[in-house]
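## Example pair
The file below holds two records. Each record gives the amino-acid sequence first, followed by its structure token line.
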Amino acid sequence: MEQEFLMSLVMIIGIDLLLGGDNAIVIAMASRNLPPKQRKKAVVLGTVFAIVVRILLTTVAVYLFQIPFVQLIGGILLLYIAYHLIVGSEEKEGEIKSHQSLRKAVQTIVAADMLMGMDNVIAVAGAAGGKTVLVVIGLLISIPIMIWGSNLILKLLDKYPALVYIGGGMLAYTAGKMIIHEHKLAPIFHTHPSMGTLLPYLLILFLTAAGFIYQRMEKKENLP
């Protein structure tokens, strides 16, 4: 019994680490406009709240995925979040009070994690075999890894701001995968398999182009 418990725990930790890369990107992108002290708070608070939400989602995963169009709606909402994470780089810190910025960053982290963590939820729920304690322990162990990963990405975004488009593209790809895994749309993608293959890449192109155009327009408006 102990060996089975440990094997399941190792599997859950592995799943969390393998599928946690995009979550680290969200955490970094959502908190990159905050002052350095508040960044640390946003990363820690966002990660902790996101983990709590993930635990709750995993415990109800079986029922959640019986709801029609959950994956489709989640994918569309994730696209919306990804777009605002890209164009948000032009926000001026002075125009937003610090505590409001921190709150918005944490809210964005939790919302995006909840939407894009569905693959993680399914995999963890399966590996846990209905044992909630395994889910909790596995996610708690993965917290420091996610925080470290997001801090590393934050440093890279500071040094290379254009990386925000790569992060946005990865979120768009995740959104596309969510949409094509929607059960109610399965007949369409089964009949037209090329559509399912191309959709994530088309969404990357659409999102990065929309973000780039918006940034160019903002710069032109701000010119004297």
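Second record, same layout:
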Amino acid sequence: MKKRKRIVLIAHDNRKEQLLEWARWNKKLLGDHELFGTGTTGGIISRELGLDVHRFKSGPLGGDQQVGSKISDGDIDVMIFFWDPMSAQPHDVDVKALLRLAVVYNIPVACNRSSADFIISSPLLQEEYDRKIDDFAAVLIEP
């Protein structure tokens, strides 16, 4: 059974063109899903490809935290995040927190074109998937 996934698209400034190129190549597949994006990235994808993208704020202005909140609420299934490994970001701590939440809530994350290609072409993207989430309560110190 086909299952629409909730996919968030994020790219640092030096990687926006690469994400746009990848999204253009995968426009039909992306159009089958519910898309989200941080401010500028979501706007570019929407404007250039005519896809409906629910937009958060720009990453440095709180968009990364908004995405993280959606992940922790179970409202994001996949994150495509073309981050720039060669440039320091003023919001690096937000990026690290976002990636940490993606791991905690066990969602697939693509950080480059190759991993994004593997995710977008996976048959699991088209069907129901029971994501297993670790119980971290045992490692948290309770008062």
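Notes on the second record: The chain has one domain: 6-125. The radius of gyration is 15 Å.
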